[in-house]
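Structure record:
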Amino acid sequence: MKPIVLITHIQYFQYLKHRWALLRAGVRLLLCVFCLCSTSVSLADTSTLLHIKKNSPYATTFKISLAPDQTIDTDALQDLLKTHLTIHEALENTRLNQAEWLRLVQEAPKEIKELLETEGYFSAEVNIESSPTQDTNEAVFVITPNPRTQVQEVSLIFKGEIAHAPAEQSPSSTTLTQGWLLPKSTPFTQQGWSEAKRALLTAMLGERYPNAKIESSQAIIDPETHQAKLNLTVDSGIGIHLGNLVIEGLHHYPESLVRNLNPIESGMPYSQSTLLKLQNTLQETGKFNRVTVSATTQKPNQDGLADVVVNVQEREQESVSIGVGASTNTGARVVLNYTDRNLFERGLLWDTSLRLEQRLQAATSSIKLMTDASGYRDSINNSLVRTNVEGQITTAVNNGVKRSWGDRNFEQFIGANLLYEFLSIDGESTEFNKAATFAYGLSLRRLDHDLIPTKGVIFSSQFQMAPIERLSDGRFLQSQAKLQGFYPLGQNTQFLGRLEIGVVTGSDSVPATYLFRAGGDQSVRGYAFQALGVKDGDAILGGRVLLTGSTELVQWFTSSWGAAAFVDFGNAANSWHDYKPAYGYGFGVRWKSPVGPVGADIAYGEETKDYRLHFNLGVSF
Protein backbone atom coordinates (compact mmCIF):
# COMPACT_ATOMS: atom_id res chain seq x y z
CA MET A 1 0.00 0.00 0.00
CA LYS A 2 2.92 2.37 0.62
CA PRO A 3 4.03 2.61 -3.03
CA ILE A 4 0.57 3.60 -3.96
CA VAL A 5 0.64 6.28 -1.32
CA LEU A 6 3.99 7.58 -2.71
CA ILE A 7 2.64 7.66 -6.24
CA THR A 8 -0.39 9.48 -5.02
CA HIS A 9 1.76 12.16 -3.32
CA ILE A 10 3.86 12.57 -6.44
CA GLN A 11 0.77 12.99 -8.61
CA TYR A 12 -0.62 15.53 -6.12
CA PHE A 13 2.68 17.48 -6.18
CA GLN A 14 2.64 17.52 -9.99
CA TYR A 15 -0.94 18.76 -9.86
CA LEU A 16 0.03 21.66 -7.50
CA LYS A 17 3.02 22.53 -9.72
CA HIS A 18 0.74 22.75 -12.73
CA ARG A 19 -1.74 24.97 -10.88
CA TRP A 20 1.11 27.24 -9.67
CA ALA A 21 2.29 27.68 -13.26
CA LEU A 22 -1.22 28.66 -14.29
CA LEU A 23 -1.43 31.09 -11.36
CA ARG A 24 1.89 32.73 -12.29
CA ALA A 25 0.76 33.03 -15.88
CA GLY A 26 -2.44 34.68 -14.69
CA VAL A 27 -0.53 37.11 -12.48
CA ARG A 28 1.75 38.02 -15.40
CA LEU A 29 -1.32 38.64 -17.54
CA LEU A 30 -2.88 40.86 -14.87
CA LEU A 31 0.37 42.81 -14.48
CA CYS A 32 0.53 43.38 -18.23
CA VAL A 33 -3.06 44.61 -18.28
CA PHE A 34 -2.37 46.87 -15.27
CA CYS A 35 0.72 48.31 -16.93
CA LEU A 36 -1.19 48.99 -20.09
CA CYS A 37 -3.98 50.63 -18.11
CA SER A 38 -1.46 52.62 -16.10
CA THR A 39 0.19 53.80 -19.29
CA SER A 40 -3.11 54.93 -20.71
CA VAL A 41 -4.01 56.79 -17.49
CA SER A 42 -0.68 58.65 -17.44
CA LEU A 43 -1.10 59.83 -20.99
CA ALA A 44 -1.51 63.59 -21.11
CA ASP A 45 -4.81 65.19 -22.02
CA THR A 46 -4.42 67.33 -25.13
CA SER A 47 -7.03 69.95 -26.06
CA THR A 48 -7.24 72.97 -28.32
CA LEU A 49 -6.28 76.20 -26.62
CA LEU A 50 -6.55 78.81 -29.35
CA HIS A 51 -7.44 79.07 -33.06
CA ILE A 52 -6.14 81.97 -35.16
CA LYS A 53 -7.21 82.60 -38.76
CA LYS A 54 -9.07 79.31 -38.94
CA ASN A 55 -9.82 78.17 -42.53
CA SER A 56 -7.44 80.79 -43.92
CA PRO A 57 -4.09 80.44 -45.75
CA TYR A 58 -2.29 81.12 -42.46
CA ALA A 59 -4.36 78.98 -40.07
CA THR A 60 -2.56 78.60 -36.74
CA THR A 61 -3.67 76.41 -33.83
CA PHE A 62 -2.28 76.17 -30.32
CA LYS A 63 -2.98 73.03 -28.27
CA ILE A 64 -2.20 72.36 -24.64
CA SER A 65 -1.13 69.03 -23.19
CA LEU A 66 -1.72 68.54 -19.46
CA ALA A 67 -1.07 65.68 -17.09
CA PRO A 68 -4.25 64.20 -15.54
CA ASP A 69 -3.64 65.88 -12.19
CA GLN A 70 -2.47 69.21 -13.64
CA THR A 71 -4.60 72.34 -13.87
CA ILE A 72 -3.85 75.66 -15.53
CA ASP A 73 -5.72 78.90 -16.13
CA THR A 74 -6.31 78.55 -19.88
CA ASP A 75 -7.95 81.99 -20.13
CA ALA A 76 -4.84 83.62 -18.68
CA LEU A 77 -2.63 81.59 -21.03
CA GLN A 78 -4.73 82.67 -24.03
CA ASP A 79 -4.42 86.30 -22.98
CA LEU A 80 -0.65 85.87 -22.59
CA LEU A 81 -0.28 84.52 -26.13
CA LYS A 82 -2.66 87.05 -27.67
CA THR A 83 -0.94 89.98 -25.97
CA HIS A 84 2.74 89.15 -26.40
CA LEU A 85 3.21 86.49 -29.10
CA THR A 86 4.65 87.98 -32.28
CA ILE A 87 2.93 85.53 -34.64
CA HIS A 88 -0.48 86.42 -33.19
CA GLU A 89 0.12 90.11 -33.84
CA ALA A 90 1.46 89.40 -37.34
CA LEU A 91 -1.61 87.33 -38.27
CA GLU A 92 -3.75 90.43 -37.75
CA ASN A 93 -1.65 92.26 -40.36
CA THR A 94 -3.15 92.19 -43.87
CA ARG A 95 0.36 92.55 -45.38
CA LEU A 96 1.56 89.19 -43.98
CA ASN A 97 3.06 86.92 -46.69
CA GLN A 98 3.91 83.22 -46.82
CA ALA A 99 7.64 83.62 -46.24
CA GLU A 100 7.19 85.82 -43.19
CA TRP A 101 4.58 83.45 -41.74
CA LEU A 102 6.88 80.42 -42.15
CA ARG A 103 9.67 82.31 -40.38
CA LEU A 104 7.39 83.19 -37.47
CA VAL A 105 6.22 79.56 -37.22
CA GLN A 106 9.82 78.43 -36.67
CA GLU A 107 10.48 81.13 -34.07
CA ALA A 108 7.22 80.68 -32.17
CA PRO A 109 8.25 77.69 -29.94
CA LYS A 110 11.19 79.60 -28.45
CA GLU A 111 9.06 82.69 -27.89
CA ILE A 112 6.26 80.67 -26.25
CA LYS A 113 8.72 79.05 -23.85
CA GLU A 114 10.08 82.45 -22.87
CA LEU A 115 6.55 83.70 -22.22
CA LEU A 116 5.74 80.64 -20.11
CA GLU A 117 8.85 81.22 -18.03
CA THR A 118 7.43 84.59 -16.94
CA GLU A 119 4.49 82.63 -15.49
CA GLY A 120 6.70 80.14 -13.66
CA TYR A 121 6.82 77.29 -16.21
CA PHE A 122 10.59 76.92 -16.63
CA SER A 123 10.51 73.35 -17.99
CA ALA A 124 7.79 73.82 -20.57
CA GLU A 125 7.97 72.05 -23.92
CA VAL A 126 6.62 73.41 -27.20
CA ASN A 127 6.47 71.19 -30.28
CA ILE A 128 5.24 71.77 -33.80
CA GLU A 129 2.73 69.00 -34.38
CA SER A 130 1.96 70.02 -37.94
CA SER A 131 4.07 72.29 -40.13
CA PRO A 132 2.90 74.08 -43.26
CA THR A 133 3.45 71.98 -46.41
CA GLN A 134 2.37 72.07 -50.02
CA ASP A 135 -0.75 70.12 -49.06
CA THR A 136 -1.73 72.18 -46.00
CA ASN A 137 -1.10 75.68 -44.75
CA GLU A 138 -1.95 74.97 -41.11
CA ALA A 139 0.56 75.22 -38.27
CA VAL A 140 -0.25 73.33 -35.06
CA PHE A 141 1.70 73.90 -31.85
CA VAL A 142 1.44 71.63 -28.81
CA ILE A 143 2.31 73.29 -25.49
CA THR A 144 3.24 71.10 -22.53
CA PRO A 145 3.63 73.40 -19.50
CA ASN A 146 4.93 70.73 -17.07
CA PRO A 147 4.90 71.53 -13.32
CA ARG A 148 4.87 75.16 -12.26
CA THR A 149 7.73 76.50 -10.16
CA GLN A 150 6.87 77.12 -6.49
CA VAL A 151 8.61 79.44 -4.05
CA GLN A 152 10.68 77.24 -1.72
CA GLU A 153 12.54 79.85 0.31
CA VAL A 154 12.40 83.63 0.86
CA SER A 155 15.28 85.60 2.35
CA LEU A 156 14.56 89.27 3.14
CA ILE A 157 17.51 91.24 4.52
CA PHE A 158 16.99 94.79 5.83
CA LYS A 159 19.79 97.32 6.25
CA GLY A 160 19.80 100.87 7.52
CA GLU A 161 17.75 102.37 10.34
CA ILE A 162 14.77 100.06 9.76
CA ALA A 163 16.87 97.03 10.77
CA HIS A 164 16.84 98.29 14.37
CA ALA A 165 13.34 99.83 14.40
CA PRO A 166 10.82 98.44 16.93
CA ALA A 167 8.27 95.96 15.58
CA GLU A 168 5.32 98.23 16.48
CA GLN A 169 6.66 101.03 14.29
CA SER A 170 5.19 101.32 10.81
CA PRO A 171 6.82 100.28 8.63
CA SER A 172 9.17 97.82 10.32
CA SER A 173 11.09 94.77 9.14
CA THR A 174 8.51 92.63 10.93
CA THR A 175 5.46 94.17 9.26
CA LEU A 176 7.15 94.19 5.84
CA THR A 177 8.10 90.51 6.17
CA GLN A 178 4.58 89.58 7.25
CA GLY A 179 3.11 91.50 4.31
CA TRP A 180 5.48 90.02 1.68
CA LEU A 181 3.34 89.26 -1.38
CA LEU A 182 5.23 86.19 -2.66
CA PRO A 183 5.58 83.88 0.35
CA LYS A 184 6.73 80.27 0.51
CA SER A 185 4.68 77.61 -1.35
CA THR A 186 3.08 80.11 -3.77
CA PRO A 187 3.54 79.92 -7.57
CA PHE A 188 6.46 81.97 -8.82
CA THR A 189 5.78 84.44 -11.64
CA GLN A 190 7.91 87.27 -12.97
CA GLN A 191 5.03 89.71 -12.46
CA GLY A 192 4.47 88.49 -8.90
CA TRP A 193 8.18 88.82 -8.12
CA SER A 194 8.27 92.36 -9.48
CA GLU A 195 5.06 93.40 -7.70
CA ALA A 196 6.25 91.97 -4.37
CA LYS A 197 9.50 93.95 -4.56
CA ARG A 198 7.67 97.09 -5.66
CA ALA A 199 5.11 96.83 -2.85
CA LEU A 200 7.79 96.39 -0.20
CA LEU A 201 9.85 99.31 -1.47
CA THR A 202 6.75 101.53 -1.87
CA ALA A 203 5.76 100.89 1.74
CA MET A 204 9.18 102.17 2.86
CA LEU A 205 9.30 105.12 0.46
CA GLY A 206 5.84 106.29 1.54
CA GLU A 207 6.48 106.35 5.28
CA ARG A 208 9.67 107.39 7.16
CA TYR A 209 12.21 106.15 4.57
CA PRO A 210 11.89 108.19 1.31
CA ASN A 211 15.50 107.33 0.38
CA ALA A 212 15.10 103.55 0.63
CA LYS A 213 16.46 101.43 -2.22
CA ILE A 214 16.88 97.80 -3.26
CA GLU A 215 20.51 96.85 -2.82
CA SER A 216 20.34 93.40 -4.41
CA SER A 217 17.69 91.13 -5.86
CA GLN A 218 18.02 87.50 -6.94
CA ALA A 219 15.60 84.72 -7.90
CA ILE A 220 17.32 81.31 -8.16
CA ILE A 221 15.25 78.89 -10.27
CA ASP A 222 15.79 75.11 -10.30
CA PRO A 223 13.99 73.71 -13.39
CA GLU A 224 14.58 70.12 -12.23
CA THR A 225 12.86 70.46 -8.85
CA HIS A 226 10.54 73.27 -9.98
CA GLN A 227 11.51 75.38 -6.98
CA ALA A 228 12.58 79.00 -6.54
CA LYS A 229 14.74 80.65 -3.88
CA LEU A 230 14.23 84.41 -3.50
CA ASN A 231 16.88 86.72 -2.04
CA LEU A 232 16.25 90.43 -1.50
CA THR A 233 18.35 93.02 0.33
CA VAL A 234 16.86 96.47 1.03
CA ASP A 235 18.59 99.52 2.50
CA SER A 236 16.20 101.95 4.20
CA GLY A 237 18.77 104.66 4.86
CA ILE A 238 18.02 106.98 7.79
CA GLY A 239 14.46 107.84 8.86
CA ILE A 240 13.39 111.30 7.68
CA HIS A 241 11.40 113.81 9.76
CA LEU A 242 9.61 116.85 8.35
CA GLY A 243 10.53 120.41 9.26
CA ASN A 244 9.63 123.98 8.28
CA LEU A 245 7.05 125.02 5.67
CA VAL A 246 8.49 126.88 2.66
CA ILE A 247 5.92 128.58 0.37
CA GLU A 248 6.70 129.58 -3.21
CA GLY A 249 4.57 131.23 -5.91
CA LEU A 250 2.14 133.41 -3.88
CA HIS A 251 1.58 136.91 -5.29
CA HIS A 252 -1.94 138.03 -4.30
CA TYR A 253 -2.78 135.93 -1.25
CA PRO A 254 -1.32 135.96 2.27
CA GLU A 255 0.76 133.00 3.45
CA SER A 256 -1.91 132.26 6.06
CA LEU A 257 -4.02 130.79 3.24
CA VAL A 258 -1.52 127.93 3.03
CA ARG A 259 -0.36 127.76 6.64
CA ASN A 260 -3.89 127.46 8.04
CA LEU A 261 -4.48 124.40 5.85
CA ASN A 262 -1.19 122.72 6.74
CA PRO A 263 -1.59 119.67 9.05
CA ILE A 264 2.18 119.00 9.23
CA GLU A 265 3.99 119.69 12.48
CA SER A 266 7.75 120.11 12.64
CA GLY A 267 9.45 116.89 13.69
CA MET A 268 6.74 114.47 12.56
CA PRO A 269 7.91 111.42 10.55
CA TYR A 270 7.96 111.73 6.76
CA SER A 271 4.67 110.66 5.18
CA GLN A 272 3.98 110.83 1.47
CA SER A 273 0.23 110.57 2.07
CA THR A 274 0.32 113.61 4.37
CA LEU A 275 2.12 115.66 1.71
CA LEU A 276 -0.44 114.54 -0.87
CA LYS A 277 -3.32 115.43 1.46
CA LEU A 278 -1.99 118.98 1.83
CA GLN A 279 -1.58 119.23 -1.93
CA ASN A 280 -5.18 118.13 -2.58
CA THR A 281 -6.52 120.47 0.12
CA LEU A 282 -4.80 123.48 -1.45
CA GLN A 283 -5.98 122.46 -4.92
CA GLU A 284 -9.59 122.27 -3.69
CA THR A 285 -9.54 125.93 -2.61
CA GLY A 286 -10.06 126.86 -6.26
CA LYS A 287 -7.38 129.54 -6.12
CA PHE A 288 -4.56 127.70 -7.87
CA ASN A 289 -3.95 126.24 -11.32
CA ARG A 290 -1.20 124.00 -10.00
CA VAL A 291 -0.01 122.88 -6.57
CA THR A 292 3.01 120.71 -5.78
CA VAL A 293 4.07 119.70 -2.29
CA SER A 294 7.45 118.02 -1.75
CA ALA A 295 10.09 117.56 0.94
CA THR A 296 13.84 118.12 0.75
CA THR A 297 14.62 114.54 1.77
CA GLN A 298 17.96 114.51 -0.05
CA LYS A 299 19.13 117.74 1.59
CA PRO A 300 17.88 118.06 5.19
CA ASN A 301 18.32 121.42 6.93
CA GLN A 302 20.80 122.14 9.71
CA ASP A 303 18.46 120.53 12.25
CA GLY A 304 18.40 117.32 10.24
CA LEU A 305 14.80 117.92 9.15
CA ALA A 306 13.40 117.94 5.61
CA ASP A 307 11.69 121.22 4.74
CA VAL A 308 8.17 120.96 3.24
CA VAL A 309 8.14 122.98 0.01
CA VAL A 310 4.76 124.19 -1.30
CA ASN A 311 4.93 125.57 -4.84
CA VAL A 312 1.74 127.12 -6.28
CA GLN A 313 0.64 128.80 -9.46
CA GLU A 314 -2.25 131.19 -8.88
CA ARG A 315 -5.33 131.18 -11.06
CA GLU A 316 -6.65 134.34 -12.64
CA GLN A 317 -8.40 136.56 -10.08
CA GLU A 318 -11.69 136.77 -12.00
CA SER A 319 -13.37 134.47 -14.50
CA VAL A 320 -16.65 134.18 -16.41
CA SER A 321 -18.04 130.95 -17.81
CA ILE A 322 -21.17 129.80 -19.58
CA GLY A 323 -22.47 126.27 -19.93
CA VAL A 324 -25.38 124.42 -21.47
CA GLY A 325 -26.76 120.99 -20.69
CA ALA A 326 -29.80 118.91 -19.93
CA SER A 327 -31.21 116.84 -17.08
CA THR A 328 -34.01 114.30 -17.00
CA ASN A 329 -35.07 115.94 -13.72
CA THR A 330 -35.32 119.64 -14.60
CA GLY A 331 -34.87 119.72 -18.41
CA ALA A 332 -32.57 121.77 -20.63
CA ARG A 333 -30.40 124.39 -18.94
CA VAL A 334 -28.12 127.37 -19.47
CA VAL A 335 -25.74 128.41 -16.67
CA LEU A 336 -23.81 131.70 -16.44
CA ASN A 337 -21.14 131.89 -13.74
CA TYR A 338 -18.91 134.70 -12.44
CA THR A 339 -16.09 134.05 -9.92
CA ASP A 340 -13.87 136.50 -8.02
CA ARG A 341 -11.14 134.61 -6.16
CA ASN A 342 -9.75 137.59 -4.24
CA LEU A 343 -12.77 139.65 -3.27
CA PHE A 344 -11.84 142.99 -1.62
CA GLU A 345 -8.19 141.88 -1.96
CA ARG A 346 -8.68 139.73 1.17
CA GLY A 347 -8.58 136.26 -0.35
CA LEU A 348 -12.36 135.81 -0.22
CA LEU A 349 -13.88 133.55 -2.87
CA TRP A 350 -17.09 134.98 -4.39
CA ASP A 351 -19.00 132.64 -6.66
CA THR A 352 -22.23 133.79 -8.36
CA SER A 353 -24.36 132.02 -10.93
CA LEU A 354 -27.54 132.40 -12.95
CA ARG A 355 -29.20 129.08 -13.80
CA LEU A 356 -32.07 128.81 -16.28
CA GLU A 357 -33.80 125.44 -16.65
CA GLN A 358 -37.20 124.33 -17.86
CA ARG A 359 -38.52 123.56 -14.38
CA LEU A 360 -36.04 125.49 -12.24
CA GLN A 361 -34.54 128.97 -12.35
CA ALA A 362 -32.03 130.19 -9.78
CA ALA A 363 -29.70 133.07 -8.95
CA THR A 364 -27.12 132.24 -6.28
CA SER A 365 -24.26 133.98 -4.49
CA SER A 366 -21.68 132.44 -2.15
CA ILE A 367 -18.80 134.17 -0.38
CA LYS A 368 -16.29 131.78 1.19
CA LEU A 369 -13.78 133.08 3.71
CA MET A 370 -10.30 131.62 3.97
CA THR A 371 -9.89 128.72 6.36
CA ASP A 372 -8.75 130.06 9.73
CA ALA A 373 -6.02 128.73 12.03
CA SER A 374 -8.53 126.46 13.82
CA GLY A 375 -9.60 124.81 10.56
CA TYR A 376 -13.03 126.48 10.33
CA ARG A 377 -14.45 127.30 6.89
CA ASP A 378 -17.08 130.09 6.96
CA SER A 379 -19.38 131.20 4.16
CA ILE A 380 -22.24 133.59 3.42
CA ASN A 381 -24.91 132.22 1.08
CA ASN A 382 -27.80 133.92 -0.73
CA SER A 383 -30.18 132.53 -3.32
CA LEU A 384 -33.38 133.16 -5.22
CA VAL A 385 -34.87 129.90 -6.56
CA ARG A 386 -38.08 129.31 -8.53
CA THR A 387 -39.34 125.78 -9.24
CA ASN A 388 -42.38 124.64 -11.22
CA VAL A 389 -42.92 120.96 -10.51
CA GLU A 390 -46.12 118.87 -10.57
CA GLY A 391 -48.53 121.80 -10.34
CA GLN A 392 -46.68 123.61 -7.54
CA ILE A 393 -44.74 126.83 -8.18
CA THR A 394 -42.37 127.77 -5.38
CA THR A 395 -40.29 130.94 -5.17
CA ALA A 396 -37.84 130.89 -2.27
CA VAL A 397 -35.41 133.55 -1.04
CA ASN A 398 -32.67 132.23 1.25
CA ASN A 399 -30.08 134.22 3.22
CA GLY A 400 -27.75 132.26 5.46
CA VAL A 401 -24.35 131.73 7.03
CA LYS A 402 -22.51 128.46 7.48
CA ARG A 403 -19.45 127.17 9.31
CA SER A 404 -17.96 123.77 8.44
CA TRP A 405 -14.92 121.85 9.66
CA GLY A 406 -13.24 118.50 9.24
CA ASP A 407 -11.99 116.66 6.16
CA ARG A 408 -13.78 114.71 3.46
CA ASN A 409 -13.89 111.57 5.59
CA PHE A 410 -15.70 113.28 8.45
CA GLU A 411 -17.14 116.76 7.95
CA GLN A 412 -19.55 118.73 10.15
CA PHE A 413 -21.33 122.05 9.79
CA ILE A 414 -23.59 124.47 11.64
CA GLY A 415 -25.60 127.22 10.05
CA ALA A 416 -28.39 129.78 10.28
CA ASN A 417 -30.81 130.68 7.51
CA LEU A 418 -33.73 133.05 6.91
CA LEU A 419 -36.29 131.87 4.33
CA TYR A 420 -39.05 133.80 2.59
CA GLU A 421 -41.26 131.63 0.39
CA PHE A 422 -44.05 132.30 -2.07
CA LEU A 423 -46.17 129.26 -2.98
CA SER A 424 -48.72 128.83 -5.78
CA ILE A 425 -50.72 125.61 -6.30
CA ASP A 426 -52.44 124.90 -9.62
CA GLY A 427 -52.03 128.57 -10.49
CA GLU A 428 -54.69 129.61 -7.98
CA SER A 429 -53.93 129.88 -4.28
CA THR A 430 -50.85 131.83 -3.18
CA GLU A 431 -49.19 131.50 0.19
CA PHE A 432 -46.41 133.42 1.89
CA ASN A 433 -44.24 131.52 4.38
CA LYS A 434 -41.21 132.44 6.41
CA ALA A 435 -38.84 130.55 8.68
CA ALA A 436 -35.64 131.33 10.59
CA THR A 437 -33.75 128.09 11.09
CA PHE A 438 -30.61 126.81 12.73
CA ALA A 439 -28.93 123.74 11.26
CA TYR A 440 -26.42 121.06 12.14
CA GLY A 441 -25.18 118.38 9.77
CA LEU A 442 -22.47 115.80 9.33
CA SER A 443 -21.16 113.54 6.60
CA LEU A 444 -19.09 110.39 6.97
CA ARG A 445 -17.25 108.80 4.05
CA ARG A 446 -15.34 105.52 4.00
CA LEU A 447 -14.58 104.85 0.35
CA ASP A 448 -11.81 103.08 -1.52
CA HIS A 449 -11.97 105.77 -4.22
CA ASP A 450 -13.56 109.23 -3.92
CA LEU A 451 -14.42 109.61 -7.61
CA ILE A 452 -15.44 106.06 -8.60
CA PRO A 453 -16.02 104.04 -5.39
CA THR A 454 -16.31 100.25 -5.52
CA LYS A 455 -16.37 99.54 -1.78
CA GLY A 456 -17.40 101.60 1.21
CA VAL A 457 -20.18 103.69 2.73
CA ILE A 458 -21.39 107.29 2.74
CA PHE A 459 -23.57 108.56 5.55
CA SER A 460 -24.99 112.06 5.84
CA SER A 461 -27.48 113.60 8.22
CA GLN A 462 -28.80 117.06 8.96
CA PHE A 463 -31.24 118.72 11.36
CA GLN A 464 -32.92 122.09 10.72
CA MET A 465 -34.90 123.69 13.51
CA ALA A 466 -37.08 126.80 13.63
CA PRO A 467 -37.18 127.62 17.38
CA ILE A 468 -38.18 131.33 17.26
CA GLU A 469 -41.88 131.71 16.52
CA ARG A 470 -41.63 135.47 15.91
CA LEU A 471 -39.33 134.85 12.94
CA SER A 472 -41.24 131.82 11.63
CA ASP A 473 -44.81 130.80 10.96
CA GLY A 474 -44.39 128.07 13.56
CA ARG A 475 -41.85 125.99 15.42
CA PHE A 476 -40.70 122.83 13.64
CA LEU A 477 -37.79 120.43 13.29
CA GLN A 478 -36.74 118.76 10.02
CA SER A 479 -34.57 115.64 10.41
CA GLN A 480 -33.04 113.84 7.46
CA ALA A 481 -30.50 111.02 6.99
CA LYS A 482 -29.10 109.19 3.97
CA LEU A 483 -26.96 106.05 3.72
CA GLN A 484 -25.25 104.71 0.60
CA GLY A 485 -23.27 101.50 0.33
CA PHE A 486 -20.92 100.03 -2.27
CA TYR A 487 -19.83 96.40 -2.08
CA PRO A 488 -18.03 94.13 -4.61
CA LEU A 489 -19.65 90.71 -5.03
CA GLY A 490 -16.83 89.46 -7.25
CA GLN A 491 -14.12 90.69 -9.52
CA ASN A 492 -16.60 92.22 -12.00
CA THR A 493 -19.86 92.41 -10.03
CA GLN A 494 -20.87 95.20 -7.66
CA PHE A 495 -23.78 95.86 -5.30
CA LEU A 496 -25.05 99.38 -4.61
CA GLY A 497 -27.59 100.25 -1.96
CA ARG A 498 -29.24 103.49 -0.86
CA LEU A 499 -31.64 104.38 1.96
CA GLU A 500 -33.00 107.85 2.80
CA ILE A 501 -35.40 108.87 5.57
CA GLY A 502 -36.83 112.23 6.62
CA VAL A 503 -39.30 113.51 9.22
CA VAL A 504 -40.78 116.95 9.98
CA THR A 505 -42.28 117.47 13.43
CA GLY A 506 -43.90 120.47 15.08
CA SER A 507 -46.14 123.18 13.66
CA ASP A 508 -48.61 122.55 10.86
CA SER A 509 -47.34 125.70 9.12
CA VAL A 510 -44.09 124.43 7.62
CA PRO A 511 -42.74 126.06 4.43
CA ALA A 512 -42.85 123.79 1.36
CA THR A 513 -39.05 124.11 1.10
CA TYR A 514 -38.69 121.98 4.25
CA LEU A 515 -41.22 119.31 3.26
CA PHE A 516 -40.35 116.17 1.29
CA ARG A 517 -41.11 114.87 -2.17
CA ALA A 518 -39.65 111.87 -4.03
CA GLY A 519 -39.06 110.70 -7.59
CA GLY A 520 -36.35 111.29 -10.16
CA ASP A 521 -32.78 110.28 -11.01
CA GLN A 522 -31.35 110.14 -7.47
CA SER A 523 -34.58 109.15 -5.76
CA VAL A 524 -37.14 106.70 -7.22
CA ARG A 525 -36.47 105.99 -10.89
CA GLY A 526 -39.48 105.35 -13.11
CA TYR A 527 -41.15 108.58 -11.91
CA ALA A 528 -40.73 112.24 -12.82
CA PHE A 529 -38.71 114.64 -10.68
CA GLN A 530 -40.53 115.15 -7.33
CA ALA A 531 -43.68 113.49 -8.71
CA LEU A 532 -44.25 111.44 -5.54
CA GLY A 533 -45.81 113.12 -2.51
CA VAL A 534 -49.15 114.30 -1.17
CA LYS A 535 -51.83 114.67 -3.83
CA ASP A 536 -53.83 117.90 -3.82
CA GLY A 537 -56.09 117.98 -6.88
CA ASP A 538 -53.80 117.84 -9.89
CA ALA A 539 -50.78 118.98 -7.89
CA ILE A 540 -48.23 117.04 -5.83
CA LEU A 541 -47.27 118.69 -2.54
CA GLY A 542 -44.55 117.93 -0.04
CA GLY A 543 -45.10 115.55 2.87
CA ARG A 544 -43.90 115.45 6.45
CA VAL A 545 -42.35 111.97 6.21
CA LEU A 546 -40.06 110.48 3.55
CA LEU A 547 -38.62 107.03 2.98
CA THR A 548 -36.84 105.96 -0.23
CA GLY A 549 -34.41 103.19 -1.07
CA SER A 550 -32.66 101.42 -3.89
CA THR A 551 -30.85 98.15 -4.59
CA GLU A 552 -28.71 97.83 -7.69
CA LEU A 553 -26.44 95.20 -9.23
CA VAL A 554 -23.76 96.23 -11.74
CA GLN A 555 -21.94 93.76 -13.97
CA TRP A 556 -18.76 95.18 -15.54
CA PHE A 557 -17.92 93.71 -18.95
CA THR A 558 -14.78 95.81 -19.43
CA SER A 559 -12.76 98.06 -17.15
CA SER A 560 -15.00 100.99 -18.09
CA TRP A 561 -18.37 99.66 -19.31
CA GLY A 562 -21.05 97.69 -17.49
CA ALA A 563 -24.78 96.98 -17.20
CA ALA A 564 -27.05 97.48 -14.20
CA ALA A 565 -30.35 96.11 -12.91
CA PHE A 566 -32.13 97.95 -10.10
CA VAL A 567 -35.24 98.20 -7.94
CA ASP A 568 -36.20 101.53 -6.31
CA PHE A 569 -38.96 102.29 -3.83
CA GLY A 570 -40.19 105.27 -1.88
CA ASN A 571 -42.70 108.02 -1.35
CA ALA A 572 -43.53 111.03 0.80
CA ALA A 573 -46.67 111.41 2.91
CA ASN A 574 -48.17 113.50 5.70
CA SER A 575 -47.79 110.64 8.20
CA TRP A 576 -46.41 107.12 8.41
CA HIS A 577 -49.98 105.87 8.53
CA ASP A 578 -50.58 107.38 5.08
CA TYR A 579 -47.24 106.24 3.68
CA LYS A 580 -47.43 103.85 0.71
CA PRO A 581 -44.24 103.14 -1.24
CA ALA A 582 -44.15 103.38 -5.02
CA TYR A 583 -41.88 100.98 -6.89
CA GLY A 584 -39.71 101.44 -9.97
CA TYR A 585 -37.36 98.99 -11.60
CA GLY A 586 -35.36 98.66 -14.77
CA PHE A 587 -32.01 98.30 -16.48
CA GLY A 588 -29.20 100.63 -17.48
CA VAL A 589 -25.65 101.05 -18.72
CA ARG A 590 -22.68 102.34 -16.70
CA TRP A 591 -19.50 104.09 -17.78
CA LYS A 592 -16.50 104.93 -15.61
CA SER A 593 -15.70 108.30 -17.16
CA PRO A 594 -12.68 110.46 -16.24
CA VAL A 595 -14.99 112.79 -14.26
CA GLY A 596 -16.90 110.06 -12.41
CA PRO A 597 -19.49 107.32 -13.02
CA VAL A 598 -22.08 108.02 -15.72
CA GLY A 599 -25.36 106.09 -15.93
CA ALA A 600 -28.28 105.89 -18.34
CA ASP A 601 -31.37 103.96 -17.16
CA ILE A 602 -34.75 102.89 -18.47
CA ALA A 603 -37.11 102.47 -15.52
CA TYR A 604 -40.71 101.29 -15.25
CA GLY A 605 -42.93 103.03 -12.71
CA GLU A 606 -45.38 100.57 -11.20
CA GLU A 607 -47.85 103.32 -10.22
CA THR A 608 -47.84 105.16 -13.56
CA LYS A 609 -47.51 102.03 -15.74
CA ASP A 610 -45.02 103.95 -17.84
CA TYR A 611 -41.31 103.93 -18.75
CA ARG A 612 -38.93 106.81 -18.16
CA LEU A 613 -35.36 107.55 -19.21
CA HIS A 614 -32.92 108.71 -16.51
CA PHE A 615 -29.36 110.05 -16.67
CA ASN A 616 -27.02 110.56 -13.74
CA LEU A 617 -23.42 111.68 -13.32
CA GLY A 618 -21.18 111.10 -10.32
CA VAL A 619 -21.90 109.88 -6.80
CA SER A 620 -24.56 111.80 -4.91
CA PHE A 621 -23.45 112.89 -1.41
In short: The chain has eight helices and 28 strands. The first strand starts at residue 45 and ends at 52. Helices lie at 2-42, 74-84, 86-91, 98-118, 173-178, 190-206, 256-259, 272-283.
